[in-house]
Amino acid sequence: MKEFDYIIIGGGCAGLSLAYELEVHEKLNDKTLAIIEPRQEYKKDKTWSFWKVMPHNFDDCVKKNWENFSINIPGKTNYLECKNYPYQSIDSGLFYKKINNKLKENKNISFFKDITEINSRNSFIFNSVPEIKKNHLNLWQHFCGVEIETKKNFFDEEIFNLMDFDCEQRESVHFFYTLPYSKNRALIETTWLSKMNDNSQKDYDKQIKEYVENHLKIKDYEITYKEEGAIPLFYPSNKKEKNKINIGTAGGMTRLSTGYTFLNIQEHSKYIRENIENIYNLKRFEISKKYQFLDDIFLRVLNKNPEKMSNIFFNMFNTSPKTVIKFLSNKSNFYEDLKIILQMPKLTFIKAIFY
Ligand SMILES: Cc1cc2nc3c(=O)[nH]c(=O)nc-3n(C[C@H](O)[C@H](O)[C@H](O)COP(=O)(O)OP(=O)(O)OC[C@H]3O[C@@H](n4cnc5c(N)ncnc54)[C@H](O)[C@@H]3O)c2cc1C
Question: Which atom of ligand 1 is nearest to the CA of 16?
Answer without folding.
Answer: 25
